[in-house]
């Protein structure tokens, strides 16, 4: 075989191998559907907690927080997923020094791994959540909540403690909350707050979406700072710069609305 023919043969072999690899990947993925944690088997585990503060470090999971009449932190999890040419889903749950780790890992050429955790927390416990990929929800808390997701929505309902809510890529919603301080920031998502109690401070920012705040009429007037670099601003509550009830609503790219909730 001449040198030119050998070079042509090697290129043909490499091209055939690449095509075969793409075909194999396509065939392998054709039988893989979307992962659905809600259909996965249910697992439960309890973790002792000393003190009145809990931190949750999570990844690739939706987190739901529930205050309950329990002595330990009770976790219910469901994990689902598939991998192509790799490993997973590998789920981890452990408690150390007041930090509950809830993570799901998939290491593969292609994968879809998801989980959901319901975390029952002893009443009177302040909770901090840092979720790398997934939504965070909480309802019925009377203690401070600090909830953050890198990639997912954050929602709090029917709670009376101070709130710090943050999402890098997702919406933020608070409904029927009565805490004196609500701080909410989304880098890429809307912010919507409906307050059922008169706040001392509301501080909201969206870098790229709409901001809407609904305030109790009983707290008027409010010291309102409402601004948008690229969007309409609608303030429909009585205002007074000297008010003890301070409201900040800012969007870099979206409408800003401040109205009465009543």
Automatic annotation (TrEMBL):
Domain DUF4097 residue range list: 74-258
InterPro entries: Toastrack_DUF4097
Domain of life, source organism: Bacteria
PROSITE patterns in alphabetical order: PROKAR_LIPOPROTEIN (PS51257)
Protein name: DUF4097 domain-containing protein
Origin species: Streptomyces peucetius
């Amino acid at each position: 075989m001449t040198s030119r023919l050998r070079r042509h043969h090697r290129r043909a072999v490499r091209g055939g191998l690449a095509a075969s690899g793409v075909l194999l990947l396509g065939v392998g993925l054709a039988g893989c559907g979307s992962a659905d944690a809600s259909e996965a088997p249910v697992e439960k585990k309890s973790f002792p907690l000393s003190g009145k503060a809990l931190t949750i470090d999570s990844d690739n999971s939706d987190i739901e927080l529930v205050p309950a009449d329990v002595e330990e932190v009770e976790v219910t999890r469901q994990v689902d997923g598939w991998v192509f040419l790799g490993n997973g889903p590998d789920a981890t749950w452990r408690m150390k020094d007041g930090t509950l780790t809830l993570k799901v890992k998939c290491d593969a050429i292609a994968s879809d791994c998801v989980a959901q955790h319901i975390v029952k927390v002893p009443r009177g416990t302040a909770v901090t959540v840092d979720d790398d990929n997934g939504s965070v929800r909480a309802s019925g808390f009377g203690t401070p909540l600090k909830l953050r997701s890198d990639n997912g929505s954050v929602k709090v309902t029917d709670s009376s403690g101070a709130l710090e809510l943050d999402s890098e890529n997702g919406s933020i919603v608070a409904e029927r909350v009565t805490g004196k301080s609500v701080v909410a920031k989304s880098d890429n998502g809307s912010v919507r707050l409906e307050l059922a109690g008169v706040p001392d401070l509301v501080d909201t920012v969206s870098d790229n979406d709409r901001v809407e705040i609904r305030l109790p009429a009983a707290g008027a007037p409010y010291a309102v700072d409402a601004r948008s670099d690229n969007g309409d601003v609608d303030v429909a509550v009585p205002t007074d710069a000297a008010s003890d009830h301070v409201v900040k609503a800012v969007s870099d790219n979206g409408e800003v609305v401040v109205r009465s909730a009543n």
